[in-house]
Design a protein that fits this description.
By secondary structure, this protein is an alpha/beta fold. Helices cover 29% and strands 21% of the residues. The protein is built from 41 helices and 58 strands.
Length: 1499
C-alpha cells in the first residue's frame, strides 16, 4: 500500500496513528483477517495518500504474508463418500442462505465496534488437542524459585509443611507515609509486560463498554439486596389479531373395504396376497438381502403370538397374558425381525414397547429407559439371536443388569425357536377399540423417558388419515430412511404399509453412513412412489451426488420430509430440489410434515398437482418471534427467519393454537403458541403417569375470559407454531427447544443454525452442536456446546467462539452465558447418533463435560444483579449511637473477669519479672520438671527442670557477654527448631538484658523461599547477634544460602551447642516493668511483616490471665502441639510454664508428618486434661486419621481425659474443621464440649481463650446478605444464605472489647458488624519500627473512640471484624454472658459493588462445587474478582470448573467472577498457622509465576 506522502506515518494526525496501532495489534492477535486489516488500513489512509488512478489502494502493496493458505485437507477415511463429506465442503444441511448472509453481515457490523476478548491461557501439557505453539510463553522470563528439592515432583500434592513466604516487601511502618491500600489496588511491582496484566487490561476494556440493558441509577439500599426484575420493553410487539378459531381438516373419507382393525388387514393380505412383497431389508452395502412377503409376515407373526401366549410358562401360570407390556429390543438394521415381533404382539394382544438396543452398561439414556420399563411394568424383552449375543455380558455369560433397569427375561424370536400354532388356534382379532395397541417412547427435555400409549382405534384411524393424505394405493413401493421403531418411520413403513399392501424398502442408518446416496439409488432402481426422509438424508445425498450421475427421481410423487419443522429444513429442501430437479425430481413432490409422539402426524403437505403454484414462505422477524408474535420481517433482513409450511391439518382432525405456559388459552391469529390437535388419531396417555397425562392429552382450550371453548379434548403436540393464510400450518420450533431468557423466547434450533452459519469448517463438527439453558441467578442462561475438530488450533477455536457470540448477540439479541468446545466424539449420543441434550446438560452441571475450550460471558448476560450499595454520607458516629440507643440496642461491648477482684495468694505475684520467677523456682523447687520435649516416636528426647533451665540460661547469657560483646537492650535473633534449646536461649537473653526475637529457622530444602524472611527480620529488628545451633549456622553461611541472600553481612552468629561452664557475674534486672521484654515478629496473611513490642508488665499480665483462665498450677500437665515462634503459640511454649509452674509436654508439629498418631497418643498416654494445637495440626489429624479410628482404638488411645482442646488461631473459627474433628474422635472418648478456639491478633496475642470454667462456646447462624452490609441478623439453622459462626472462646480476665465502626471510629450497636477494639494490661506496647512512625502507632495501639466514651479509654485496634451478642448463659460473674464472634480480618475483606465480602465465604462456596477442587483462594485485582482453584483431579477436568465456579459465586454471593485460574495442588501459599496468603498468591498471579493449568477470563 502506498505510504502517505511527506514523512510517512509520522506526519499523520495523532488519532489516525493510534487507530493504525490498534489495527496492528488486532492483526497480531488474530482478531482480524489479513484482508480485513488491509481494507481498514486503506480506508484510514485514503485521505492522506496521493491516489494512483484506477487502482484500489488495498492492492497497491504486497500482502504481509505471501504464503498461500493451505487447502483444507481431510483425514483419510474408510469410504470415498465419507471423504467427500468431511472435507472442506459447506454443510448444506443447516444452511439457509438468508441465515449465512445475515450472520456475515452481523459479524461485519461487529468488526467495526471491535471487541477485544482476551484469549484464555492454557498450559501446554494439558490438552493433547492443542498444538504446542498455541501457547504464548510469558514475555518476562523470571525464573520461578526451584522448589523441586522439597517436593518429590512438581505435581506432588504435599505442600512444604510450614513455610512462611517472604513478605511482599511491606513492613508495617517501615517507609513513612506508605499507603497500604495503594499497594492493593494497583498492580504495584508487577511488570507491565506481564501477559496476565495485559489480558486483564483487555478484559477490563471490554467490560467498560456499555451493556444492555442499561442499569438504572444507583440507590441507597440498606438491608436486602433486591434482584433486578427485568422490566418489559415498552416497545415490544404485542399480538393484535382476533382470537383464533380451531381449524378443521377435510373429513376422513369412508372407504367401504377399510378393515375393522389393522390386524384384520394383515390377515386379509397374508391369506389372499401371500406372495406380495411387504418389506425389503438391505445389507451393509445397500443391496437388498431379504424380502418379507405378506404370507411370511402373517405366518411368522401367528407363530410368535402363539408362542408368547402358550409356550413361555405353564398352562396354569402363563408368563404373558393379553394386556401385558413387552419390550422389543431390535437393532436398526433388522426391520424384518422387528415387524414380525410387532405384529406378533398385536395378534397376541400384548402391548409392544419398542426401545433401543443398550450398547453399554451405562448408556447415555439407559437409566431413563429403565424408568420407562419400570413404569410400564415390563418383565419380558423380545430380541433376535444375533442381538442377544451382542449384548454386554457378565463374567459367567449372563446379560448384565443395565443401570436403572428392572430384571428382564429375554426371549429370542428367530423362527427356529417358535412353535407352530395348532390348526384350530386362531388369534382374537376384534374391532379396534380404545384398548392400548403399542407404546412409543419419548424423551422429554429433562431427559426422562415416557411412554406414549396409542390405542388400537387411534392406530387404525391414523393409518386411514395418512392413507388419505398421502393418497396411498395398493402395491406402491416406498423407501423409508427413518427409524422404523417410532414416529413416521413406524407409522408409514410398518403400519400404513400393511393397511395398503405397500412394499417398503427400509434403508438403515448404518447404510446411510457408508453409502449416503443409497436411498436415492433405491428410489431409482425400484421406481418408488414415496420416500420418507429427514433433512440430514437430503444433505448427505447432495454431498455424495457427484459420484452418481445417472439416477432418476421422476417416479417420486411424494418426498416426505419428516423434520419439516426445523428452521433449516426450508434451505435443505431448496438446495436438494435445485440439485435433483435435473434428475427428474418434481418441485410439487416435496412434502414437509410435522409430527410429535403425543399428537402423531400433526400436519402434512399434500402431494401437489403438477404446474400448480408452490406454497409461499413466511419471512418472520426474529425479534417478533422472541416475544411470541408473528411479524413479517421488513426492517432488518439479518434477523429474519424463513419458514415453510408443513401443509394442512390431517383428515378428520382439528387444530388450535394455545399459549405455551399457564392455562390453555387460545392464541390470537398473529401469535405463536403450542399446536394442539384433536382427533381419533393421537396418543391417549403417558403410560403409568396419570398426572402428566391430564395436562397433555386432555386439554380443553379456554378463551381470554378463561371459559372453556367446546368440550372436545385436544392433545398438546409439543410444537410451537401458527396457522397461516389458507389454513396452512407453520411450525417455528419445539417446546423442548424453547429457551426463555428474561421473558423472551428463543428456539435452540435457531441458535444452532446461527452458530453454524459462522464459517466453522476448521473448528467444529457441524451437526454436533448442543444448545440448552441452565437456571443461574433467577433467570435462564444459554449454553452452547460443540465438538471441536482434533486439528483445530487454539486461535481458530477462540476466534470461532468469539464470532459465534457476536452473531447470536446480533441476530437473536440475546447473550450466551457459556460457550464450550469439547473433544471430538465426546458428547453423549442418542441411539441414532444425535446429541443427547439433557445428558449433555447434566454433564455440564455436574462438571463432567471435560471441555477443551470454554468462554464464559456472565458480564454481558447477567443484567439482573442488585444495584451496588452506596455508603450513606454524612451520618456521624454520634447520630448512629443515639439511633442505637433510641432503638433500644445495646452498645456492643464485653469484658472478661475483673483482675482486681480475683484473689490469688500465689507467691508468683510478688515477682514483677519472669527472670525473677525462674530464679525463685530454681531455688524453691529445683527438680520440678517444667518441660518435656518429644520426638516423632513419642519418646522424651530432652527435659528441663527449674534448675536445669536456670543454669542453661546463665551459660547462654555469659556467652552473649563474652562472644557477642552485647549491651543491655540489644536485639538478639533466636534461630532454633521447636524445642527446649529455644526456651533456654530466650531466658539467657533476658538474663543478659538483651531483647530476644524468635524466628522460624529456614527450610534447608527450600532456602530460596524461606531464607529471605529470616534475613528480613534480622535486618528490620537490627539484631546485634544471632543465636542458633551448629547445623543452622553452617546453613546460614552455605553456598545455597548465598544464592538467596547476602551471607557476608550477617551479624555475629553464635552457636549454643557446646557452652563453657561459666558463672554469670550478675543477672540483669530491668529498671521498670515497662521496659521491653521481647519482640514478636510475624508475617500476616496479607504478606505484611510486623514486629510488636512486649513489655515485662505485659508478659506478666498475659501469663497471669492465662493461668487464671485455665487454672494452671504446678501439679498440672498440658500438651502443646504448636509452632513456638510468635503470638500465643510462643507464649504457651516459652512463658506460661515458668510463670505458673505447670509441666508442658512439647510436641513439635513437624514431627506429626512422620507420625500422625503422635499428638493424640501423647494426650492419651499422659492423661492430659488441657491441650493446645493449631488448625494445621487438627487438619492433619482429621484428614490423616479420619479413617483410622479403629487403629487408634487398637493402640489403646483414649481421649476421655481431655477437658479442653484449644485451637490457637488469629482468624474466624473454622467450625467445619473443629466439628468434624470432634465427631471423628468421639468414638475414642473425646467429649463434644472439649474443642474450642482462641482469638488473638498482632496488637494483643490473647483476647479470648476458652479455659476451664464458664459456659461452653455458643454458635449462631447469621444472614450472609446482611453481613455484606455490615449488619448482623440472626437466622434459623438451614435458612438460605446463612453462615454458622462460633464464639472464639471466653474473653480473658482483665480484657475489655468494644465493637467500633472502622471508618467513623464510633461505637456500634450489637446488631452491627464492626472492628474489634481491645483494652487490656497485656496489650503489646506498639509496633517495633525502624523509624518510630508515631501516627501508625497511635492509630493501632492508643486510639480513643470518636464519641461516647467519657473515660477516654485507650484502645488497641485488632484489625478484625466481629460482633458481640448477649447470650442466655450465665458468666462466672453471675451476669448474662456476652459472646464475641470473629468474622474475619479487615485487611482481607473485598469491597465489591459497595459491599463487604470475606474471602473465606466465597472460597467455601467454591470448594463445595466439585470433588476435584482441593483448595481455593480469592482476591481482587482492580475491580475484578479472581478465583484460584487447585485441581486435584485429572487435568481434563480443569475447564469443567470454570462454569461451576462462576455459577456458584453468582448464585450465592451475587458476584460475577472476572478470572478463574486453575492450578496444581500446593500452589496456594499457606503459612505455618495454616492460613492462606492471598496477597502472595495475587502477586505471583500478576507476575505470571503460577504456571496455571488454565486461566479463563470471563467476559
Amino acid at each position: 500500500m502506498a505510504e502517505p506522502a511527506g514523512g510517512g506515518v509520522c506526519s499523520l494526525p495523532r488519532e489516525i496513528r493510534e487507530q493504525l496501532a490498534e489495527l496492528e495489534l488486532e492483526l497480531s492477535e488474530g482478531d482480524i483477517t489479513q484482508k480485513g486489516y488491509e481494507k481498514k488500513r486503506a480506508k484510514l489512509l485514503a485521505p492522506y495518500i496521493p491516489q494512483t488512478h484506477g487502482v484500489d489502494p488495498a492492492l497497491q502493496k504486497e500482502p504481509r504474508n505471501p504464503t498461500p493458505a493451505p487447502a483444507a485437507t481431510s483425514a483419510p477415511s474408510s469410504s470415498k463418500y465419507h471423504r467427500a463429506r468431511s472435507g472442506g465442503a459447506r454443510d448444506e444441511r443447516y444452511r439457509s442462505d438468508i441465515h449465512t448472509e445475515a450472520v456475515q453481515a452481523a459479524l461485519a457490523k461487529h468488526k467495526e465496534q471491535k471487541m477485544a476478548l482476551p484469549m484464555p491461557t492454557k498450559r501446554r501439557s494439558t490438552f493433547v488437542q492443542s498444538p504446542a505453539d498455541a501457547c504464548t510463553p510469558p514475555e518476562n522470563f523470571s525464573v520461578p524459585p526451584d522448589v523441586t528439592a522439597t517436593t518429590s515432583s512438581s505435581s506432588s500434592s504435599a505442600r512444604p509443611a510450614t513455610i512462611d513466604l517472604p513478605p511482599s516487601g511491606i513492613v508495617k511502618g517501615t517507609h513513612k507515609g506508605s499507603n497500604r491500600s495503594s499497594l492493593m489496588d494497583t498492580a504495584d511491582g508487577v511488570p507491565v509486560s506481564s501477559r496476565v496484566s495485559t489480558k486483564i487490561q483487555q478484559l477490563l476494556n471490554t467490560l467498560k463498554r456499555p451493556k444492555r440493558p442499561p442499569l438504572k441509577e444507583f440507590f441507597v439500599d440498606d438491608f436486602e439486596e433486591i434482584v433486578e426484575v427485568p422490566q418489559p420493553d415498552p416497545n415490544q410487539p404485542k399480538p393484535e389479531g382476533r382470537q383464533m378459531t380451531p381449524v378443521k381438516g377435510e373429513p376422513l373419507g369412508v372407504v367401504c373395504n377399510w378393515p375393522p382393525a389393522l390386524e384384520a388387514a394383515l390377515q386379509r393380505w397374508g391369506t389372499t396376497q401371500a406372495k406380495c412383497p411387504c418389506l425389503t431389508a438391505l445389507d451393509v452395502t445397500g443391496k437388498p438381502i431379504y424380502t418379507l412377503t405378506y404370507g411370511k409376515l402373517w405366518s411368522r407373526s401367528l407363530k410368535l403370538a402363539y408362542t408368547l401366549l402358550n409356550k413361555l410358562g405353564t398352562k396354569n401360570e402363563p408368563v404373558l397374558k393379553p394386556g401385558d407390556r413387552v419390550a422389543l429390543v431390535y437393532p436398526n438394521n433388522d426391520p424384518v425381525m422387528f415387524m414380525v415381533a410387532f405384529y406378533g404382539c398385536l395378534l397376541a394382544e400384548v402391548i409392544p414397547v419398542p426401545i433401543e438396543v443398550p450398547l453399554t452398561r451405562k448408556d447415555a439414556g439407559g437409566q431413563q429407559i429403565g424408568f420407562l420399563l419400570g413404569s410400564c411394568g415390563i418383565t419380558l424383552a423380545l430380541t433376535t439371536e444375533v442381538c442377544l449375543k451382542g449384548l454386554p455380558k457378565t463374567q459367567n455369560g449372563e446379560i448384565v443388569q443395565f443401570k436403572g433397569w428392572p430384571r428382564l427375561k429375554w426371549v429370542v424370536t428367530d423362527s427356529k425357536y417358535l412353535s407352530k400354532s395348532p390348526k384350530d388356534w386362531q388369534p382374537n382379532i376384534s374391532t379396534a377399540g380404545t384398548e392400548p395397541a403399542y407404546i412409543e417412547y419419548k424423551t422429554s427435555k429433562e431427559g426422562s423417558v415416557m411412554g406414549v400409549t396409542v390405542s388400537r382405534i387411534a392406530m387404525l384411524s391414523h393409518c386411514q388419515a395418512l392413507s388419505q393424505a398421502c393418497n396411498y394405493s395398493e402395491g406402491e413401493t416406498i423407501v423409508n430412511v427413518l427409524d422404523f421403531k417410532k414416529d413416521a418411520g413406524l407409522w408409514h413403513g410398518m403400519l400404513t404399509n400393511v393397511m395398503n399392501k405397500l412394499h417398503t424398502l427400509s434403508v438403515p442408518y448404518s447404510v446411510m453412513k457408508t453409502c449416503p446416496l443409497s436411498w436415492v439409488q433405491r428410489v431409482h432402481t425400484h421406481k418408488a412412489k414415496v420416500a420418507l426422509v429427514k433433512c440430514r438424508d437430503l444433505h448427505w445425498a447432495m454431498m455424495a451426488h457427484r459420484d452418481q450421475r445417472d439416477v432418476s427421481l421422476s417416479s417420486l410423487r411424494m418426498l416426505i420430509v419428516t423434520d419439516g419443522a426445523n428452521p433449516w429444513s426450508v434451505s435443505s429442501c431448496d438446495a436438494f430440489l435445485s440439485l435433483f430437479q435435473s434428475h427428474g425430481l418434481k418441485p410439487e413432490a416435496i412434502c414437509p410434515c410435522a409430527t410429535s409422539p403425543e399428537a402423531m402426524t400433526v400436519a402434512i403437505r399434500r402431494p401437489g398437482v403438477p404446474g400448480a403454484p408452490l406454497p409461499g414462505r413466511a419471512i418472520l422477524s426474529m425479534n417478533g418471534l422472541s416475544y411470541g408474535v408473528i411479524r413479517v420481517n421488513t426492517e432488518d433482513k439479518n434477523s429474519a427467519l424463513t419458514v415453510q409450511d408443513v401443509g394442512h391439518v390431517m383428515p378428520g382432525g382439528m387444530m388450535c393454537i394455545v399459549k405455551p405456559d399457564g392455562s390453555p388459552q387460545l392464541c390470537k391469529t398473529d401469535e405463536i403458541g403450542e399446536i394442539c390437535v384433536s382427533s381419533r388419531t393421537g396418543g391417549m396417555m403417558y403410560y403409568g403417569l396419570a398426572g402428566v397425562t391430564k395436562n397433555t392429552f386432555e386439554v380443553i382450550p379456554v378463551n381470554s375470559a378463561g371459559s372453556p371453548v367446546g368440550d372436545v379434548p385436544f392433545v398438546r403436540s409439543g410444537l410451537l407454531g401458527f396457522v397461516g393464510p389458507g389454513s396452512l400450518v407453520f411450525v417455528v420450533g419445539k417446546i423442548d427447544g424453547l429457551l426463555t431468557v428474561s421473558g423472551r423466547r428463543h428456539n435452540a434450533d435457531d441458535i444452532v443454525a446461527t452458530g453454524l452459519a459462522v464459517e466453522s469448517i476448521k473448528t467444529v463438527y457441524r451437526g454436533r452442536i448442543a444448545v440448552f439453558s441452565v437456571s443461574v441467578f433467577y433467570d435462564e442462561r444459554i449454553v452452547v456446546v460443540a465438538e471441536q475438530r482434533p486439528d483445530a488450533s487454539e486461535e481458530d477455536s477462540f476466534q470461532w467462539m468469539s464470532r459465534v457470540l457476536q452473531a447470536i448477540d446480533s441476530i437473536h439479541q440475546v447473550g450466551v452465558y457459556c460457550l464450550a468446545l469439547v473433544p471430538a466424539n465426546t458428547l453423549p449420543k442418542t441411539p441414532l447418533g444425535g446429541i443427547h441434550i439433557s445428558q449433555t446438560k447434566q454433564h455440564f452441571l455436574e462438571g463432567s463435560l471435560h471441555p477443551c475450550n470454554i468462554l464464559m460471558c456472565p458480564h454481558t448476560c447477567v443484567t439482573n444483579l442488585p444495584k451496588p450499595r452506596q455508603k450513606q454520607p454524612g451520618v456521624g458516629p454520634a447520630s448512629v449511637m443515639v439511633g442505637n440507643l433510641v432503638a433500644g440496642k445495646r452498645i456492643a461491648q464485653a469484658a472478661g473477669r475483673d483482675l482486681g477482684q480475683i484473689e490469688d495468694n500465689d507467691l508468683v505475684r510478688k515477682h514483677q519479672f519472669l527472670t525473677e520467677v525462674l530464679q525463685w523456682r530454681a531455688q524453691a523447687t529445683p527438680d520440678h520438671m517444667l518441660f518435656l520435649l518429644l520426638n516423632a516416636k513419642g519418646t522424651p528426647v530432652c527435659t528441663a527442670t527449674c534448675l536445669q533451665l536456670h543454669k542453661r540460661a546463665e551459660r547462654i547469657a555469659s556467652v552473649l557477654y563474652d562472644k557477642g560483646h552485647l549491651n543491655a537492650g540489644d536485639n538478639v535473633v533466636l534461630l532454633y527448631p521447636p524445642g527446649i534449646e529455644l526456651i533456654a536461649a530466650f531466658y539467657g537473653c533476658l538474663y543478659a538484658g538483651c531483647i530476644p526475637v524468635t524466628v522460624r529457622p529456614p527450610h534447608a530444602q527450600n532456602l530460596t523461599a524461606t531464607l529471605p524472611t529470616v534475613r528480613m527480620i534480622v535486618d528490620v529488628s537490627k539484631a546485634a547477634c544471632i543465636l542458633t545451633t551448629q547445623t543452622l549456622m553452617r546453613l546460614l553461611k552455605s553456598r545455597e544460602a548465598a544464592a538467596a541472600v547476602d551471607v557476608k553481612t550477617w551479624p555475629t552468629i553464635i552457636d549454643t551447642d557446646d557452652l563453657p561452664r561459666k558463672r554469670l557475674p550478675q543477672i540483669y534486672k530491668p529498671p521498670t516493668p515497662e521496659m521491653l521484654a521481647y519482640l514478636d515478629f510475624s508475617v500476616s496473611t496479607t504478606g505484611m511483616l510486623t514486629g510488636v513490642k512486649m513489655s515485662h508488665s505485659a508478659v506478666n499480665a498475659l501469663c497471669r490471665a492465662i493461668k487464671l483462665q485455665c487454672e494452671l498450677y504446678s501439679s498440672r500437665q498440658i500438651a502443646i502441639c504448636l509452632d513456638p515462634y510468635c503470638g500465643l503459640g510462643f507464649t504457651l511454649w516459652c512463658l506460661c510454664s515458668v510463670y505458673s509452674g505447670h509441666q508442658s509436654i512439647l510436641i513439635p508439629p513437624m514431627e506429626l508428618e512422620s507420625n500422625l498418631f503422635l499428638w493424640l497418643s501423647t494426650v492419651s498416654q499422659y492423661k492430659i486434661r488441657d491441650t493446645f494445637c493449631s488448625y494445621s495440626v487438627m487438619e492433619l489429624c482429621t484428614k490423616g486419621l479420619g479413617n483410622q479410628v479403629e487403629a487408634l482404638k487398637a493402640r489403646g488411645i483414649n481421649l476421655s481425659c481431655v477437658r479442653t482442646c484449644v485451637v490457637v488461631a488469629e482468624e474466624r473459627p473454622r467450625i467445619s474443621l473443629t466439628q468434624s474433628f470432634s465427631k471423628l474422635f468421639k468414638d475414642i472418648g473425646l467429649s463434644s464440649r472439649a474443642v474450642s478456639t482462641t482469638f488473638g491478633s498482632r496488637v494483643n496475642v490473647a483476647i479470648c481463650l476458652q479455659g476451664t470454667s464458664g459456659p461452653d462456646p455458643t454458635t449462631v447462624y447469621v444472614d450472609l446478605k446482611s453481613l455484606r452490609h455490615d449488619r448482623v441478623r440472626l437466622v434459623e439453622r438451614g435458612a438460605p444464605q446463612s453462615l454458622l459462626l462460633s464464639e472464639s472462646g471466653k474473653i480473658l480476665p482483665g480484657v475489655k472489647v468494644i465493637i467500633v465502626n472502622p471508618e467513623t471510629k464510633g461505637p456500634v450497636g450489637d446488631s452491627h458488624l464492626g472492628e474489634i477494639w481491645v483494652n487490656s494490661p497485656h496489650t503489646a506496647s506498639g509496633y517495633y519500627t525502624i523509624y518510630d512512625n508515631e501516627s501508625l502507632q497511635a492509630d493501632h495501639f492508643n486510639t480513643r473512640l470518636s464519641f461516647g466514651d467519657a473515660a477516654q479509654t485507650l484502645w488497641a485496634r485488632t484489625g478484625y471484624l466481629g460482633f458481640v451478642r448477649r447470650t442466655e448463659l450465665t458468666a462466672a460473674s453471675g451476669d448474662r454472658h456476652d459472646a464475641l464472634y470473629v468474622v474475619g480480618a479487615l485487611d482481607e475483606t473485598l469491597e465489591l459493588r459497595g459491599l463487604r465480602y470475606h474471602p473465606i465465604d466465597i472460597e467455601t462456596s467454591v470448594s463445595r462445587t466439585h470433588r476435584s477442587i482441593a483448595e481455593c483462594a480469592v482476591f481482587t485485582w482492580t475491580n475484578l474478582l479472581v478465583v484460584v482453584v487447585e485441581l486435584c483431579g485429572c487435568e481434563q477436568e480443569a475447564l469443567d470448573l470454570v462454569p461451576l465456579v462462576t455459577n456458584v459465586v453468582l448464585e450465592e454471593h451475587y458476584l460475577i467472577v472476572g478470572v478463574v485460574v486453575v492450578v496444581d495442588p500446593g500452589v496456594i501459599p499457606i503459612n505455618s498457622r495454616g492460613e492462606k496468603q492471598r496477597m502472595h498468591l495475587r502477586d505471583s498471579f500478576l507476575a505470571d509465576q503460577l504456571d496455571p493449568i488454565y486461566v479463563a477470563y470471563n467476559m
